[in-house]
């Protein structure tokens, strides 16, 4: 081809690819996981298949005490807390072993593998990775679990006909399994609330009250969804008794709840709804802002109980009064981990913000609007929260002024 047509063809090669062309850059990832109870962990093989070198390098941030034995095709470099894998052009395999047991203090496990069941976070199977890849390339990921005879599995993901799980995170270019998982000899109860598919699962004989939890969620989840319309379409509640940690812990589209935790506490809040608040918000706290994340989760555990009719107006008011008493002596909210009195004081600050937003807008705006803005936004900080609140109110808000937020920097 010569002349003008040749120049036109050369120009086309320099133009960026269209969105549909970029979207078509799909590479396949299979996480083939062989659970080994005798070693309290699993052998993991990442199988990458791609038509060309879409993925050039994966840089995994590992925990050397948990992840070990990395080997595979292409180039594998292990350097302290990083493993860098440069796969062959058409893909290849990377293998390692991961320990699935972990503790939150002496005798309190938040990941445990026994000879008949295992409960752990999917995040621990595959370490987080930074991916160097072709622009627009994204993974199509599957999780395959190889289990001891007689074991079954429940994860936050939809199960395919062949027994694999489709690992899908729309906001990521590299999908890896996350959230709580239960394996072994399980009792599982399924249900649906609105557009959310529910599963309540726990090892047989550990005392989990499946029916109570499902009934509680049928009653309260509609009120949670009213605040957070984009609430997850799939929710897994995993529970177990001792020696698991005696509390609640959240994960993407999933929650862990100790079998002995009450669904409604004496102070009128709920551990389960607190963790569901984290699931709904889906945000991380920037340094010193954990009080915001924990405060929202605790406040909405109380709000959802009240709005659903699970607690009375009197108990609702008493709940805030108890938080005010508990948190009155807190001098600094900006600690690394917000617990106890710090979270109680955070609830008081956020309730004051809600009252102010409602008063200034004649009831048109509220903390619900701010919560919906924050949901899924990535990270949150005090400055960010204050800026969002002031945009919503159209003026400075007294509730978040440094004088009313213990420990806030005074600029």
Q: Any descriptors?
A:
6-stranded mixed β-sheet, alpha+beta, 5-stranded antiparallel β-sheet, 29% helix, disordered N terminus, Immunoglobulin-like, single chain, 411 residues
Give the SSE map.
Blueprint: H1 3-14, H2 19-23, E1 26-36, E2 41-49, E3 55-61, E4 67-72, E5 75-79, E6 82-86, E7 91-99, E8 102-103, E9 109-113, E10 117-121, E11 129-133, E12 138-146, E13 152-154, E14 165-167, E15 180-184, E16 186-193, E17 196-203, H3 210-227, E18 234-240, E19 248-251, E20 254-258, H4 271-281, E21 284-285, H5 290-307, H6 313-327, H7 340-360, H8 367-374, E22 379-380, H9 382-393
Parallel strand pairs: 1-12, 17-18, 18-20, 21-22
Antiparallel strand pairs: 1-2, 2-7, 3-6, 3-11, 4-7, 5-6, 8-9, 9-10, 10-15, 12-14, 13-15, 16-17, 19-20
Helix pairs in contact: 3-5, 4-5, 5-6, 5-7, 6-7, 8-9
Task: Write a structural description.
With 411 residues, the protein is α+β, with helices and mostly antiparallel strands. It folds into two domains: 26-261, Immunoglobulin-like (Sandwich), CATH 2.60.40.3650; 279-404, no CATH class. It is 29% helix and 30% strand. It contains nine helices and 22 strands. It has helices at 3-14, 19-23, 210-227, 271-281, 290-307, 313-327, 340-360, 367-374, 382-393; strands at residues 26-36, 41-49, 55-61, 67-72, 75-79, 82-86, 91-99, 102-103, 109-113, 117-121, 129-133, 138-146, 152-154, 165-167, 180-184, 186-193, 196-203, 234-240, 248-251, 254-258, 284-285, 379-380. The chain has a six-stranded mixed β-sheet, with no helix packed on it. It has a five-stranded antiparallel β-sheet with strand order 8-9-10-15-13, with no helix packed on it. A five-stranded mixed β-sheet has the order 16-17-18-20-19, with helices on one face. Strand 5 and strand 6 form a beta hairpin. Mean pLDDT is 92; it is low at 1-22.
């Amino acid at each position: 081809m010569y002349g003008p047509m040749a120049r036109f063809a050369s120009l086309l090669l320099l133009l960026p690819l269209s969105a549909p062309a970029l979207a078509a850059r799909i590479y396949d990832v299979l996480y083939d996981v062989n659970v080994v109870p005798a070693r309290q962990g699993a052998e993991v093989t990442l199988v990458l298949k791609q038509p060309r070198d879409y993925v050039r390098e994966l840089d995994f941030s590992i925990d050397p005490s948990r992840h070990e034995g990395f080997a595979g095709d292409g180039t594998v470099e292990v350097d302290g807390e990083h493993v860098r894998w440069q796969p062959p052009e058409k893909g290849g395999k990377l293998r390692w072993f991961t320990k699935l047991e972990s503790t939150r203090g002496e005798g309190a496990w938040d990941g445990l593998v026994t000879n008949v069941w295992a409960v752990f976070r999917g995040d621990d199977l595959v370490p987080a990775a930074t991916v160097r890849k072709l622009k627009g390339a994204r993974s199509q990921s599957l999780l395959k679990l190889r289990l001891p005879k007689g074991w079954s599995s429940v994860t936050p993901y939809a199960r395919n006909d062949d027994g694999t799980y489709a690992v899908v995170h729309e906001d990521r270019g590299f999908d890896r399994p996350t959230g709580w998982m239960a394996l072994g000899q399980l009792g599982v109860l399924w249900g649906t609330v609105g557009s959310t598919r529910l599963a309540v699962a726990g090892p047989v004989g550990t005392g989990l009250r499946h029916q109570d939890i499902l009934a509680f969620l049928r009653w309260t989840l509609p009120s949670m969804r009213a605040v957070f319309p984009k609430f997850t379409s799939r929710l897994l509640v995993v529970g177990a008794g001792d020696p698991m940690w005696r509390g609640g812990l959240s994960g993407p589209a999933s929650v862990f709840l100790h079998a002995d935790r009450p669904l409604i506490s004496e102070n009128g809040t709920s551990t389960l709804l607190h963790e569901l608040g984290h699931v709904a918000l889906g945000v991380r706290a920037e340094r010193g802002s954990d009080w915001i994340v924990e405060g929202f989760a605790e406040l909405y555990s109380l709000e959802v109980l009240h709005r659903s009719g699970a607690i009375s107006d009197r108990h609702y008011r008493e709940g805030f009064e108890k938080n005010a008493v508990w948190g009155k002596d807190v001098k600094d909210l900006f600690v690394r981990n917000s617990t106890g009195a710090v979270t109680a004081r955070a609830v008081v600050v956020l309730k004051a913000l809600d009252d102010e937003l409602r008063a200034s807008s004649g009831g048109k705006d509220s903390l619900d609007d701010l919560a919906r803005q924050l949901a899924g936004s990535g990270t949150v900080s005090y400055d960010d929260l204050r800026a969002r609140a002031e945009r919503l109110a159209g003026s400075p808000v007294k509730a978040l002024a440094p004088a009313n937020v213990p420990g806030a920097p005074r600029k």
